[in-house]
Write a structure and sequence with these properties.
Length: 364
């Protein structure tokens, strides 16, 4: 096995995307993650995060290029409480995980295990973990479910979210979405209560971090909420004090009821409604608004230009019977009695072939 560090620049991300995008089913989480980081590098005012890219080749080669890499890992010490790892393995002749030959399978298993062990060992030695006491524990982000047995063979798992399937917005519902969604600043009434749709603001970060269903790392919510690419996509619904109340100039003085955000990597998440405001349809209204803002971004000329360069279909032109591009999407468990019907009502469809998990683990 040969390991090559790679600069975290746009060229590297674009080359990786062109390799990863050929996976079947379409590796939505990984492609979205790489596209997000590529777009983020366009903002020269932002301080680059301490991230690391590693290429893995099963055999020593003259070039050891991105294009013939058998695996890669993206490692970040600051994104979460624990150092985070995203990884990918090539599949197919020569280095895939599904070879028919028993000899080849053995070699591939050895390579995959050696690669993951190196990722963890490399990450443990990085000098700037957010919490040094947790330096051996890794947060494995958006890991495809087919890699979970590999991780569990090698690691002690201290937490697992459980696999979530992808729900992807179907373009045939785009017109209906455009005509029904509420824009930021819109006042609306549900029953005998008045609300207003708003953008997420910096003043909301502490409230969202404290009250969301899952316990998130505050710097992660801060970065996600206020990132210049993601912030225009988020929405939050606030309660007005009475039916005839006017919208105040400072909407952060209002009660926050429901919010829906978009993660780095472009999956919809951090979707929550406060207990006092449930069963009013607010989660649906907010999630639909985020779906529209996300789709508007995904079909913009900026994103279309990038997708063209990466040879990824544009959202409006992509096949609708399978995932083929970065369209609005989220991940949820298929037995979730609230999320699945709600997203289907907005216009999403389930893709049972695409599932991801989140795991906290350390090497045995």
């Amino acid at each position: 096995m040969h390991v090559t560090p790679l600069a975290t620049d746009r060229d590297a991300f674009h080359r990786l995307i062109r390799v990863v995008r050929t996976g079947q089913p379409f590796p939505l989480a990984m492609v979205g993650f790489l596209v997000f980081h590529s777009l983020s590098l366009e903002d020269s005012s932002r301080v680059p995060a301490p991230n690391h890219l590693l290429l893995y080749h099963a055999k020593q080669a003259a070039s050891n290029s991105v294009e013939d890499a058998d695996a890669f890992a993206f490692i970040s010490t600051q994104a979460r409480q624990r150092t985070s790892i995203w990884f990918w393995f090539r599949e197919g002749p020569g280095c895939g995980l599904e070879c028919e030959s028993s000899e080849c399978k053995h070699a591939q298993r050895e390579f995959a295990e050696a690669s993951v062990k190196h990722m963890f060992s490399f990450a443990e030695k990085l000098p700037d973990p957010a919490f040094p006491d947790l330096h051996r524990q890794m947060f494995i982000n958006f890991v495809e479910d087919k890699y979970i047995p590999l991780l569990k063979r090698l690691c002690v798992v201290s937490w697992e979210c459980q696999p979530h399937n992808a729900l992807v917005f179907d373009e045939k519902h785009a017109k209906e979405l455009d005509e029904s969604v509420l824009a930021p600043g819109t006042r609306f009434v549900v029953g005998d209560e008045a609300f207003v749709m708003d953008n997420v603001r910096s003043e909301d970060v502490d409230f969202i971090t404290t009250n969301n269903k899952y316990s998130y790392y505050r710097p992660y919510i801060q970065e996600m909420a206020m990132h210049p690419i993601l912030n225009p996509l988020h929405r939050i619904i606030r309660a007005l004090p009475s039916l005839d109340a006017e919208i105040p100039s400072d909407m952060t003085t209002l009660k926050s009821c429901t919010w829906c955000l978009v993660h780095p990597g472009f999956s919809i998440g951090v979707n929550w409604t406060m207990p006092d405001f449930r069963r009013k349809g607010l989660a649906y209204i907010c999630s639909a608004a985020v779906t529209k803002s996300y789709r508007d971004f995904a079909v913009s000329s900026k994103v279309n230009t990038l997708l063209d360069a990466l040879e990824i279909p544009r959202v409006k032109e992509a096949a609708q019977d399978r995932i083929a591009t970065i369209a609005p999407h989220c991940y949820t468990q298929l037995d979730n009695p609230a999320s699945v019907p709600m997203f289907k009502k907005i216009g999403y469809r389930v893709d049972e072939k695409v599932a991801v998990d989140w795991i906290i683990a350390e090497l045995k």
